[in-house]
Amino acid sequence: DVKVTQSSRYLVKRTGEKVFLECVQDMDHENMFWYRQDPGLGLRLIYFSYDVKMKEKGDIPEGYSVSREKKERFSLILESASTNQTSMYLCASSPPDLSYRHYEQYFGPGTRLTVT
Amino acid sequence: GENVEQHPSTLSVQEGDSAVIKCTYSDSASNYFPWYKQELGKRPQLIIDIRSNVGEKKDQRIAVTLNKTAKHFSLHITETQPEDSAVYFCAASIFGWDGLTFGKGTHLIIQP
């Protein structure tokens, strides 16, 4: 059973703080993703990584960075948190197998971040 | 980049009736089209997906159709049940492993 965990369910930070969101998966998946989810906007891809130390920008990377030092861990960093980054952040992972069924993304429970 | 439009934003159907949710995409290079279901307070979960070399796929009460020429795909749920109430998201991707572009979601309400 795939398990994707995120370090916090709820987080409150102040404007200007540096914020770290951690995600860990236990299924040896190559691919990991960070999305943010806002009401009426769906899920939007921030960054993804297809291998250790590799990262690619998604659709909304501005104001964020990521780190992948180990295969199982993918961190999202808000360099200087702003109120418009208040959101639900979802991490996901998927295996690398090119066979059709293995594109499924497994999501973590989410971190609800509030920036005040 | 890719843009995915999803309609309707809210859909209310009587229990036992069918529900159809439609999506269009902009990037003709997209090849992979999954649908995710998110129940209230829970994480999204894949319910069905389709690749561009297939026109239709069924799994029990749910089916997805794809028209690559018109760049649209649809989710069909038959014999709806109360447990089908959730938010449904369509998505598109070129390779599958390169991240998904999601639609804004459809809130499906099953009326008893």
What can you tell me about this protein's structure?
The complex is a heterodimer of chains A (116) and B (112). The mean pLDDT of chain A is 92. In chain A, the strands form two sheets. In chain A, strands 2, 4, 5, 6, 9, 10 and 11 form a seven-stranded mixed sheet that branches. Helices cover 0% and strands 52% of the residues of chain A. Chain A has strands at 4-6, 10-13, 19-25, 31-38, 42-49, 56-57, 64-70, 73-78, 87-94, 106-107, 111-115. By secondary structure, chain A is an all-beta fold. Chain A contains no helices and eleven strands. Chain B has 112 residues and is mainly β. In chain B, the strands form two sheets. In chain B, strands 2, 4, 5, 9, 10 and 11 form a six-stranded mixed sheet that branches. In chain B, strands 1-3-8-7-6 form a five-stranded antiparallel sheet, with no helix packed on it. In chain B, a hairpin with an 8-residue loop joins β9 and β10 (101-102). The model of chain B has no long low-confidence stretch (mean pLDDT 95). Classes of the chains: A mainly beta (116), B mainly beta (112). Chain A binds chain B through residues 30-31, 33, 35, 40-45, 48, 50, 56, 58-59, 90, 94, 96, 100, 103-105, 107-110, and chain B through 1, 6, 9, 32, 34, 43-46, 49, 51, 89, 93, 96-105.
Residue share in helices of chain B?
A: under 10%
**Largest two-chain interface:** A-B, 26 and 23 residues
Indicate the low-confidence ranges of chain B by residue numbers. Answer: none
Q: How many alpha or pi helices of chain B? A: 0
Helix content class of chain A: under 10%
Binned strand content of chain B: over 45%
Task: For the record, give the distance between the C-alpha atoms at the N and C termini of chain A, rounded to a whole number.
Answer: 37 Å
Gyration radius from CA atoms of chain A, angstroms? 14 Å
Task: Determine the structural class of chain B based on helices, strands and strand pairing.
Answer: mainly beta
